[in-house]
User: Which sequence fits this backbone?
C-alpha cells in the first residue's frame, strides 16, 4: 500500500509528489470585478510553502458571472484577467495547481443573484431562512451554453499555466442538482435515469477535455450521496463513477452532502455509521472503499473530516483511496501538510455551536475568515470568535453581493 510520502502519477501524466492534497475551499478574495488579486497570490504562496510541492486545488472559479457561489468568487469567463490568474499560479511555485470550476445553480444567495436557475423549478428554493430565491428552470439551450462555458473556462485556466481543472459536481451545486432526482424533475434528455441526469456533468467534462491539451488534467468532484430522502444515492454515485471512468477523467474526489443536508460539514447523523471502523474521522471512506474496483485505474481522492496522520495512513493502507484531501485544517495551519510528512500527528479544529446564518456564517465563515487573514499576509487566528465571523458574512456579503450584481450587469451589457 502507498506511503504518505509516495508519489502518484495521474493518467494525464501529472505527478503528485506525495498523497496529501489541499482540497478546495471557497476563498471569496476576488476584487469587485471578480478578478484574481494579490491576496490570492499571498494565499497560494503560503499554502505552497507548506505543501512540500504537492497538489493545490482552488475553490470555486465560476463559469458564469451572473450566478456566483459567493460575491467575490473569481469568474473564469471571457472577462477573466488571465495574467492575474497566472500570477496566482506562479505564486504557488513548484506546487501543482488545479482550478475548481463551478456553477451554483439554485445555491446562489439573494444578494448575489435575485433569481437563481436550476434543472427544474419544481424543487423550489434551498430551504434556508429565505437566503436563496426560488429558481427558474433552465432551457435546454441554456444548459448547452453552460456546458460550453465549462470548456471555455478550462481553456483559460490552461492558458494561465494551471495544471488542470476540477469540474464541481458535489455539495448541491448545479451539476450535482442535475444528478439529484429530488432537484432534477426534467423529462427531456437532461433528466430521467442516472445516465440522463449525468448528461450535463459528462458534457461538461467532454467540453473541458476538448478545449485543452492532452497533458492537461481533467478531474471531477462527486458526492457519494446527498444524504436526503429522494436525492442522489450511493447506488447512483457508483453508476456515475463508472461513467466518469469511461469518459477518461484523471481523478475523482469523493465528498458528500448539500446545503440542505450538510454532510460536508459532518452534520449528518448517518455519517457516524458510514465512517464506522478504524477511520471514524473520514466521513465518506466507506463509499470510497465501495467504488474502488469500479474506479479501476482512475485515482480516488477522499475529502471530509480527515484531521490526523493516523487516519491518512490508515486510509491509504486500506486501499480505498489514493489521495487525501485536507481543507479546513489548512485554513488553521497552512504548514500542516509539511508537518504531517515530517511525522506530526495532525490538528485539532475548534467546534462552534453558534447558530449559523442560513448555514453560511458562524462556523463555515470562521474558516473563510482564516483564509482571508492568510491572504492579507497575517497568521490564522484560532481564537477568533464565531460571532465575529458571522458578522463578517452578514455585514459583508450582503453589501458586496448587491453592489456586485449591478457591476456585473454593466460588464455583461458592455
Assistant:
Amino acid at each position: 500500500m502507498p506511503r504518505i510520502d509516495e508519489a502518484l502519477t495521474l493518467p494525464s501524466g501529472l505527478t503528485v509528489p506525495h498523497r496529501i492534497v489541499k482540497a478546495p475551499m471557497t476563498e471569496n478574495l476576488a476584487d469587485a470585478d471578480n478578478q484574481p488579486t494579490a491576496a490570492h497570490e499571498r494565499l497560494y504562496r503560503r499554502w505552497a510553502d507548506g505543501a512540500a510541492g504537492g497538489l493545490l486545488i482552488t475553490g470555486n472559479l465560476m463559469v458564469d458571472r451572473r450566478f456566483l457561489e459567493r460575491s467575490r468568487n473569481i469568474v473564469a469567463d471571457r472577462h477573466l484577467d488571465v495574467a492575474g490568474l497566472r500570477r496566482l499560479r506562479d505564486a504557488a511555485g513548484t506546487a501543482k495547481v488545479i482550478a475548481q470550476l463551478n456553477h451554483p445553480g439554485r445555491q446562489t444567495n439573494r444578494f448575489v443573484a435575485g433569481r437563481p436557475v436550476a434543472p427544474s423549478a419544481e424543487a423550489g428554493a434551498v430551504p434556508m431562512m429565505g437566503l436563496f430565491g426560488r429558481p427558474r428552470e433552465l432551457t435546454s439551450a441554456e444548459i448547452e451554453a453552460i456546458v460550453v462555458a465549462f470548456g471555455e473556462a478550462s481553456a483559460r485556466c490552461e492558458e494561465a499555466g494551471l495544471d488542470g481543472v476540477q469540474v464541481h459536481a458535489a455539495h448541491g451545486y448545479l451539476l450535482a442538482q442535475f444528478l439529484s432526482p429530488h432537484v432534477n424533475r426534467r423529462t427531456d434528455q437532461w433528466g430521467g435515469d442516472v445516465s440522463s441526469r449525468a448528461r450535463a456533468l459528462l458534457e461538461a467534462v467532454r467540453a473541458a477535455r476538448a478545449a485543452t491539451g492532452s497533458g492537461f488534467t481533467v478531474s471531477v468532484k462527486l458526492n457519494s450521496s446527498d444524504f436526503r430522502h429522494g436525492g442522489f444515492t450511493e447506488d447512483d454515485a457508483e453508476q456515475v463513477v463508472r461513467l466518469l471512468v469511461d469518459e477518461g477523467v484523471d481523478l475523482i474526489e469523493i465528498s458528500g452532502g448539500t446545503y440542505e443536508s450538510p454532510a460536508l460539514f459532518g452534520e449528518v447523523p448517518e455519517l457516524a455509521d458510514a465512517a464506522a471502523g478504524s477511520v471514524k474521522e473520514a466521513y465518506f471512506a466507506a463509499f470510497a472503499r465501495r467504488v474502488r474496483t469500479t474506479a479501476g485505474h482512475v485515482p480516488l481522492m477522499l475529502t471530509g473530516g480527515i484531521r490526523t496522520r493516523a487516519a491518512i495512513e490508515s486510509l491509504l493502507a486500506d486501499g480505498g483511496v489514493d489521495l487525501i484531501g485536507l481543507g479546513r485544517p489548512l485554513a488553521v495551519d497552512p504548514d500542516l501538510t509539511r508537518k504531517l510528512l515530517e511525522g506530526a500527528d495532525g490538528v485539532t479544529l475548534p467546534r462552534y455551536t453558534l447558530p449559523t446564518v442560513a448555514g453560511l456564517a458562524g462556523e463555515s465563515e470562521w474558516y473563510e475568515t482564516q483564509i482571508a487573514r492568510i491572504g492579507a499576509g497575517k497568521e490564522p487566528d484560532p481564537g477568533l470568535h464565531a460571532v465575529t465571523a458571522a458578522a463578517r458574512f452578514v455585514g459583508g456579503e450582503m453589501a458586496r453581493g448587491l453592489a456586485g450584481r449591478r457591476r456585473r450587469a454593466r460588464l455583461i451589457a458592455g
User: Anything to note?
Assistant: The two ends are 55 Å apart (CA to CA).
